[in-house]
């Protein structure tokens, strides 16, 4: 055990001590996208995402975890997928030991490990049903788990982390009773995407605000059918997206009335976004990154009148953006970096009067329309070749700032796979 790290823990202020102990809910050697941790802390502690990122940086500076940059090493507009979090196994064990100092059914954090369908004795048909007081519950199962769940009473759980390794996984029915639940992470550690069933247990939970699916097979059409009226953020990472021939007839503006952010990252087989996304009128952030088969964007994206951030970085098959994008009157940030095949920006891009920043590194084939000269106080982040295209507009544009960035190749990216 690292004595310096233990001394660092003892000296931590209360908020950082709590954050460190939360890391015990993730598996040993797990590589965690930083936005996962930030989502957890944002909801459980009511903190702004930038402050949660500061917590990660402070814990890293004290050697209580590692914070590894992926790719661009930046946090543009609250985007934290460019960082990876790792924790030393000894430190994780130390955090678990600290949590276990409390009596089992009085712990704030409870880790339940199930190996070969063998549940701990305390949760096998207890009579009366044991009430678990934990607010953070982590359940891990191995690749032989058959999803044969018992009953559990967890009235205080606000954050649920499900670690799975099997190819088929049924969510436990008792999730439906967690009325205080705010955050759900479903993380598959198996080799192939896991097929999820019983998603309906997530329906109508009154406080559920953030869901993250990682390395699972999912039909996107199921999402609006779940009646997630309080959901604010939906994240999919490394998922296999199942195509559907039909679209939903559900009024998405009502079933997903609170949804403000959709984050889709490394969904390798995503070709098109489902149409229902264009009906989420509350949406402010749409991030589709590292999806190399995405070839087009919805024409109906113009219906997202509240959209402020549109991130389409590292989607190398994206050829063009729809002309309808000019109707996104509240758009402040557009990221098309890594769009090697992007031929042009829409003709009336200059109508985006609230646009503050365009990130378009490695978009040297992209043609700029004359209308961009109407944009004011714009910051452009790009490579040297793309900068040349922008510089010819500089005499005609008010307060144009061009920042040239070099392409980075970071081996930390390999840790994701």
Question: How is this structure best described in words?
Answer:
This protein has 417 residues and is an alpha/beta fold. Among the domains are: 12-92, Arc Repressor Mutant, subunit A (Orthogonal Bundle), CATH 1.10.10; 105-208. The chain has 8 helices and 20 strands. The protein has helices at residues 3-10, 14-22, 34-45, 49-61, 89-99, 222-225, 252-255, 384-391; strands at residues 32-33, 66-69, 83-86, 109-114, 136-141, 159-164, 168-170, 183-188, 194-197, 210-214, 216-219, 233-237, 240-242, 261-265, 285-289, 309-311, 333-335, 357-360, 379-382, 401-404. The strands form 3 sheets. The chain has a 13-stranded parallel beta sheet, sandwiched between helices. Strands 7-9-11-13 form a 4-stranded parallel beta sheet, with no helix packed on it. Strands 1-3-2 form a 3-stranded antiparallel beta sheet. Helix 3 crosses helix 4 (49-61). The longest helix is centred in the first third of the chain and has 13 residues, at 49-61. It starts with a helix and ends in a 13-residue tail after the last strand. The model has no long low-confidence stretch (mean pLDDT 90).
């Amino acid at each position: 055990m690292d004595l310096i790290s233990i001394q660092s823990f003892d000296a931590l202020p209360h908020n950082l001590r709590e954050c460190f102990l939360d890391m015990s809910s993730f598996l040993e050697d797990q590589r965690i996208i930083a936005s996962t941790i930030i989502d957890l802390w944002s909801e459980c502690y009511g903190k702004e995402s930038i402050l949660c990122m500061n917590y990660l940086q402070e814990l890293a500076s004290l050697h209580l975890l590692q914070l590894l940059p992926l790719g661009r090493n930046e946090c543009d507009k609250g985007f934290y997928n460019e960082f990876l979090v790792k924790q030393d196994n000894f430190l994780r064990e130390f955090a678990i030991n600290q949590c276990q100092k409390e009596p089992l059914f009085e712990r704030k954090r409870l880790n339940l490990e199930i190996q070969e369908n063998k549940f701990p004795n305390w949760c096998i048909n207890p009579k009366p049903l044991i009430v678990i007081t934990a607010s953070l519950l982590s359940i891990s199962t191995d690749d032989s788990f058959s999803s044969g769940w018992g009953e559990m009473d967890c009235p205080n759980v606000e954050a649920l982390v499900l670690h799975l390794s099997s190819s088929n996984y049924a969510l436990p029915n008792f999730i439906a009773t967690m009325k205080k639940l705010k955050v759900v992470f479903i993380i598959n550690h198996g080799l192939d995407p896991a097929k999820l069933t019983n998603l309906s247990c997530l329906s109508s939970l009154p406080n559920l605000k953030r869901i993250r699916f990682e390395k699972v097979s999912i039909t996107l059409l199921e999402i609006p059918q779940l009646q997630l009226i309080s959901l604010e953020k939906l994240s999919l990472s490394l998922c296999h997206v199942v195509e559907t021939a039909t679209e939903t007839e559900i009024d998405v503006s009502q079933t997903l009335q609170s949804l403000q952010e959709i984050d889709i990252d490394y969904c390798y087989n995503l070709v098109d976004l489902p149409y229902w996304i264009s009906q989420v009128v509350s949406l402010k952030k749409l991030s589709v990154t590292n999806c190399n088969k995405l070839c087009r964007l919805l024409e109906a994206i113009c219906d997202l009148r509240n959209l402020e951030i549109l991130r389409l970085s590292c989607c190398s098959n994206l050829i063009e953006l729809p002309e309808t994008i000019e109707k996104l009157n509240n758009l402040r940030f557009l990221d098309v970096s890594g769009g090697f095949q992007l031929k042009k920006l829409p003709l009336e891009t200059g109508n985006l009067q609230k646009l503050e920043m365009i990130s378009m590194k490695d978009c040297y084939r992209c043609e700029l329309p004359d209308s961009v000269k109407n944009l004011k106080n714009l910051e452009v982040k790009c490579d040297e070749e793309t900068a040349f295209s922008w510089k010819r507009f500089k005499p005609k544009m008010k307060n144009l700032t061009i920042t040239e960035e070099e392409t980075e190749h970071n081996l930390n990216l390999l840790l994701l796979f």
